[in-house]
Structures are given as C-alpha cells and as structure tokens.
Specification:
Helix content is 41%, strand content 22%. By secondary structure, it is α/β, with parallel strands linked by helices. The protein is elongated and about 95 Å long.
Length: 300
C-alpha cells in the first residue's frame, strides 16, 4: 500500500512540474514554415500515441482473457492455426501508418523548402548567415550592414538566408521560425523563412562543432517593417565600418558579444561560388540564361 501511495505521489508531482514548464520551442511556431513542421510533429505524436494505447489495451485484454486457470493434469490446449484476418491486420495497419506518415513528411518537406505560402510574389530580404568558431555573422547586402551574434528581421516579409561556414560544418536553426540547415565552407545552402509575430527568439548551431558549441547561439528579434528600416538607418549612421583586418580578427576562435558594422565582409571575402543548394532563384536565373542563349543561337 505504501508503494502505491508513493508511486501516486510521484506521478502527481511530475504532472505538477510539467504544467509549469514552457512549451517546446518547435511546438510554439511563430512563422508559416515552423507551423508546418509543428503540425507534422503533432500528427506523428498522436499517431504513435494511438498505436501505443491500442497495443497496451490489447495486451491487458489478452492477459485477462487468457490468464492461466486451474485445469486437470491431463488437459491439453486446443490446436489453433494461424488466422488470415488477424495476420492481415497485424501486417496491414503498420504499412498503412508508414505510408500515411511518409506522404505527410514528403509533402511538408517540399513546403518548408519553398518560399512560405502567401509570400511568393514578394521580394525576399536576403541575408547571408555565416558561422565561425563560435560566432554567427549576418550580412545584409542590400542594406550594406553586418551584425555579429544577433539578427534583426522584419515581420510579414519573406526571408532568404544564404548559409555557409568559415570553418567546420555547423547548422543554422531558429526553432520557432523553421527547420535547420547545414552551413559548409565549400557551398551555400538556402533557407526560406518568415516571421509573422513580433518578438524575441533564440537561434543556435544545432551541429556539434567543438568545445564552444554549447554557447554558439544568436539572438533574433522580429519587428515591424518601419522599425526595421529605422534600425538600418541608425546602423548606417552610427556603426563603424567593417574592415578586412577587423573581420580576420573576428574569425579567430572564441566567443564574442553582439557587434554591429556598416558594410559587409562580402566585399573582400565573398561566399563560396558554384553551389547554391535550395535556392529557387538560382534555378530561375539558370533557366533565364539558357533561354537567352537559345534566343541568341536562333538569331545567328
């Protein structure tokens, strides 16, 4: 009896602690890409919950129905052969579940890799996000500014991140806005995001990259377009220019606070060329160039 009360008290205590916990960031989406990911996670959780509950219910039923009973010493259980219906159910249900989850997963992958729904006709804000040991560098080429370890973005606007690394492979991830993308030194990966709720979020490196990995994080703040434009003007007017010497110093391994510069390192240290994985614009440009070549050949 004491054990039962102890177990009940422990369960009540665990549930009380869990009710005070904040929701997981991936299940608290603030953008369309993250919302798609959260829906897939919830569908997977509920599907697994139904399977687990059904299995335990059947187990309890079988144990109760076919529990051992007092029989005579010469009792022989009846010979039972396989049941085609039962075997079909046992094999068919897992296959159906796998097909169901596969379709949802593949469909969601195409959605999160593309420009967020509702932003297709909008010019995205392009930001180059590059990592080093153990810092994040954010270059705004159109605004001609650069930040270190923090990211300001406008809400209700498509964002196109060009991600690469100045060192080991890392992973760019803002859980409340979308999934992660790897950053590599020899190619660019493109990540499409959008923030629909103003606020402060946490971004991090999701791939182990040495002893400073735990603190390889960055601050994200989503704000209205007007506030973002004002911030850009303030940076241009007050921030120090980013020189090649200063950027070389920033690439040295170590941790830094938040820093702001006018100009970007893209001018003297361009990103990797020849690869741009996940960019729809590169494909469009390629098609345009092919069409132009075709037209030129037709003219000749």
């Amino acid at each position: 009896m004491k054990r039962k009360w102890a177990l009940l008290t422990l369960m009540i205590g665990v549930f009380a602690l869990l009710t005070g916990c904040e929701p997981l960031m991936v299940l608290d989406p603030k953008g369309p890409q993250a919302e798609t990911t959260a829906k897939v996670i919830w569908i997977s959780i509920w599907t697994m919950a139904i399977v687990v509950i059904s299995v335990f219910a059947l187990m309890i039923y079988v144990i109760y129905k076919y529990q051992a009973s007092k029989q005579s010493e010469d009792y022989e259980p009846p010979h039972i052969e396989g049941n085609a219906i039962v075997e079909s159910i046992i094999v068919g249900i897992p296959v159906i579940i796998i097909i169901f989850l596969s379709i949802i997963t593949v469909k969601s992958n195409y959605e999160v890799e593309a420009t967020p729904k509702g932003y297709e006709d909008q010019k995205p804000l392009v930001i180059y996000a590059s990592s080093s040991d153990w810092k994040w560098h954010f270059s705004y080429p159109e605004e001609n500014i650069e930040t270190v370890n923090y990211l300001y973005i406008p809400t209700d606007r498509a964002l196109e991140f060009k991600i690469y690394s100045h060192g080991p492979i890392t992973s760019f991830w803002i859980p409340q806005l979308g999934g992660q993308k790897y950053a590599m030194s020899d190619m660019i990966t493109t990540l499409h995001l959008a923030a629909e709720v103003p606020g402060e979020y946490i971004g991090r490196n999701a791939n182990f990259s040495g002893k400073g990995f735990a603190e390889h994080i960055f601050h994200v703040e989503a704000m209205s377009a007007e506030e973002f434009d004002k911030w850009v003007e303030d940076v241009k007017a007050t921030a120090e220019p980013l020189t090649e010497e200063k950027f070389t110093e920033l690439l040295e391994p170590g941790h830094l606070g938040q820093m702001t510069f006018s100009g970007t390192h893209l001018e003297f240290l361009p990103p990797p060329e020849g690869h741009d994985h996940g960019s729809s614009h590169s494909n469009e440009d390629e098609h345009d160039s092919n069409d132009a070549n075709d037209d030129e050949e037709a003219g000749h």
